[in-house]
Each structure stands twice: as structure tokens, then as C-alpha cells.
Design brief:
Keywords: ATP-binding, Nucleotide-binding, Transport. By secondary structure, the chain is an alpha+beta fold. It has helices spanning about 40-50, 90-100, 105-120, 135-150, 165-185, 195-200, 220-225, 230-235, and strands at about 1-15, 15-25, 30-35, 55-60, 65, 75-80, 155-160, 185-190, 205-210, 210-215, 240-245, 250-255, 260, 275-280, 290-300, 305-310, 315-320, 330-335, 345, 350. It has 8 helices and 20 strands. The protein has a 6-stranded mixed β-sheet with strand order 6-7-8-3-9-10, with helices on both faces. A 6-stranded antiparallel β-sheet has the order 13-12-11-14-19-20. The protein binds adenosine-5'-diphosphate (ADP) and magnesium ion.
Length: about 350
């Protein structure tokens, strides 16, 4: 059952369509990530779900209630912000208890709920402190606690990890995942970080300039992108995009001198047609396959693997993963890939399957 239905939601500021006919179904208990570059409308959509921001048209249904015209406090959602938004003069315990106090809950019950949430988030020793006496990661845990204690129908997160350093981000990311697995509540999570999206989501909604580019599981977006935008946005380092041309027989595309078999495609392409061949860095390290010569520029060593940056004979730059050797500047190496790993796009960036 869908716990949240966003149906044909549009919103504009002046002449700019910030959300353009956006529809998303969020299953009960699932974790959905809204992913896209800065300014694509993620926060606007999240605020629309929360009721913090009116929409121009469309419908928002939570559970079986049409909440489109209900104020935020009647929607049974709790939101966690990038900026934590804690009350500086209140202790951690008072911050977490605040929504309960607003509801008029008695002190004893409220105290028990705060303790239970503090235990779940492992912040019991911090309950007496003020926000300024906490690290960023601890502050965000408190903000999550304040959302949890409300026991809402729906949790909304707006880039909650963006203000944290890399190590803390990874740690808290895993904790949010664990939290979701233990409470199984519906969560909608906004980020511009594809790694967060891939690691957290049951389903990712990729947005660009207020429009949905694709909706799918992390693996389906990685493996089977509908367009070059999604292909480039998901995966790190990003997919390489190479200029290619359909060969005389129509069964291969040519990248420089290399011929890549495309007989598995069901679409018939015009001879000589310009296309883009997408191939991920991690798929350029095969033992056999189509060969490309790469003049090495820089090698980044990450310990278990390396990323080699370089240029093809035609001058196009490529990033390739290398697991067994670490070529140096000035060397020319042979990259090998399987045609089945390539993704072909037309000149508009639409996937050709
Ligand atoms: N109150 C506002 N008035 C005018 N433009 C706005 C307002 N809020 C957001 N925008 C614009 O809407 C677009 C989407 O913003 P936002 O939803 O915050 O993006 P994101 O969260 O994906 O970074 C941006 O171009 C932003 O400048
Ligand atoms: Mg935002």
C-alpha cells in the first residue's frame, strides 16, 4: 500500500517551474530518496509534503487522507533538517521532549518516551547537555530523536548529513539505515549525494530542474539508466561518455578505431548515426574485450584499487579503474571492456536499448 502519493504536483516561483508535474508513490515502510543536483527542487518537494509550502496544483495523499490543503501540524509528519534546528537554550532532553510538551503530554510519559528514543540513538549520556556542547553528529542525532519521539506516520529528511565531515557522514548514514530497519517507518530523504542515495534507498527518484528523470531501485538506476543524466549522476567516478558512430553494417559503433558490437540492441540505428557510448570506470579493467589505448595522465591510488585518468588517441578524457597495476604519467595502457557493459545514448541523451 502506498503511504504517500504525490500526484502531478507543480509549483513555480514567478516564471520558473520549480516542480513540473511530479508524481511519486511511496510504499508503506519504505525508504525513498529524492536525488538531484542543487536547485533541482528537492527541498521544495519535501516542504510540499510536509505542508510548509503550498503547491500550485496536484494532490498529496498521506495514508488515506488527502492532505493537500491541510496545515503542517495536521499531516502527521516529522522533518529533520540539514541545520539541525535545535533550541539553543534547551537541554538535549528538553529539545527531544518539545513536540510532546506541545501536545500536552504528561511529564512521566514524556520522560519515558525521551529515554526510549535516547537509548535507540545511543545519546543517553548527552541528555543533560545543551546543543552547543555537542558535536555536529550528536546534534543531528538529537534532531532525529526529536522527530522519532513524535512517532509520525512519515519521516522527512532534508540533507541531514551535509554539515558533517566525511567519517561522521558515513557513520550516521549507517545509523539512519539501521534506524529504518528497526522501526520500519516510511522515510523520504533528500540528498544531492549519489552515494547516500545508493546506500540508503529502496527506491530513488532522480530529479533535474523540477522534473523526474527516472524512478527505480539503486541497482536498476545504476545498471539500466533511461538517459545520460541518470547514467552520469549515479556511480562514482562517473560514467565515461565517448563520441561514437554507427558502423556500415549497423551492428557496431565505432569509437576511434575500436568497433563495439551492438547487435544486442533492439533499436535499429542509422548507418553513420552519431551516438554516445557510456562505459563506467569499473568496466574498463577486463581481461579481454574491446581495446582502447589510454595515455595516462594521473593515477589516484585508493589502496584496494586505483583510478587512472588519461586521454584516448582522439583526445577524449577517460577515467578507468585499475585493480592490478598502477600506471604512471606518460605510460600508454590498454583498456578492455565488454560490449554488453556499454550503454548507448542518442544525441539528446536518451538511452537506446
Ligand atoms: N522562496 C523562493 N522564491 C523563489 N525561488 C525559490 C524559492 N525557494 C526556492 N526557489 C528556487 O527553486 C529552485 C529549487 O529550490 P530547492 O527546492 O531549494 O532546490 P534543492 O533543494 O534541490 O537544492 C531553485 O532554483 C531555487 O532558487
Ligand atoms: Mg535543498
Amino acid at each position: 500500500m502506498a503511504n504517500l502519493s504525490i500526484r502531478s504536483v507543480s509549483k513555480s516561483y514567478g516564471a520558473v517551474n520549480v516542480l513540473d508535474d511530479v508524481s511519486v508513490e511511496v510504499e508503506e515502510g519504505s525508504f525513498v530518496v529524492l536525488l538531484g543536483p542543487s536547485g533541482c527542487g528537492k527541498s521544495t518537494l519535501l516542504h510540499a509534503i510536509a505542508g510548509l509550502n503550498p503547491i500550485d496544483s496536484g494532490t498529496i495523499v498521506i495514508g488515506d487522507r488527502n492532505v493537500t490543503n491541510l496545515p503542517a501540524r495536521e499531516r502527521d509528519v516529522a522533518m529533520v533538517f540539514q541545520s539541525y534546528a535545535l533550541y539553543p537554550t534547551m537541554s538535549v532532553a528538553e529539545n527531544i521532549a518539545f513536540p510532546l510538551k506541545m501536545r500536552g503530554l504528561d511529564r512521566k510519559t514524556s520522560g519515558e518516551k525521551v529515554d526510549a528514543v535516547a537509548k535507540l540513538l545511543q545519546i543517553e549520556p548527552l541528555l543533560g547537555r545543551k546543543p552547543r556542547e555537542l558535536s555536529g553528529g550528536q546534534r543531528q542525532r538529537v534532531a532525529i530523536g526529536r522527530a522519532l519521539v513524535r512517532d509520525p506516520r512519515l519521516f522527512l529528511f532534508d540533507e541531514p548529513l551535509s554539515n558533517l565531515d566525511a567519517a561522521l557522514r558515513t557513520e550516521l548514514r549507517a545509523e539512519i539505515k539501521r534506524l529504518h530497519q528497526s522501526i520500519r517507518r516510511t522515510m523520504v530523504y533528500v540528498t544531492h549525494d549519489q552515494t547516500e542515495a545508493l546506500t540508503l534507498a529502496d527506491k530513488i527518484v532522480v530529479l533535474k530542474a523540477g522534473k523526474i528523470e527516472q524512478i527505480g531501485t539503486p541497482l536498476s538506476l545504476y545498471d539500466d539508466p533511461d538517459n545520460a543524466f541518470v547514467a552520469g549522476f549515479i556511480g562514482s567516478p562517473r560514467m565515461n561518455f565517448l563520441k561514437a558512430k554507427v558502423a556500415e553494417d549497423g551492428k557496431a559503433v565505432l569509437v576511434g578505431d575500436a568497433s563495439v558490437d551492438i547487435s544486442h540492441l533492439t533499436t535499429r540505428l542509422g548507418i553513420g548515426q552519431d551516438v554516445t557510448l557510456g562505459i563506467r570506470p569499473e568496466h574498463l579493467d577486463e581481461k579481454q574485450g574491446v581495446e582502447l589505448a589510454l595515455a595516462v595522465d594521473v593515477t589516484e591510488r585508493l589502496g584496494s584499487t586505483s583510478y587512472v585518468h588519461g586521454a584516448l588517441a582522439g583526445g577524449e578524457t577517460v577515467v578507468a579503474e585499475r585493480r592490478e597495476d598502477q600506471p604512471r604519467f606518460g605510460e600508454t595502457i590498454t583498456l578492455r571492456f565488454l560490449p554488453s557493459r556499454t550503454r548507448i545514448f542518442d544525441t539528446q541523451g536518451l538511452r537506446i536499448r
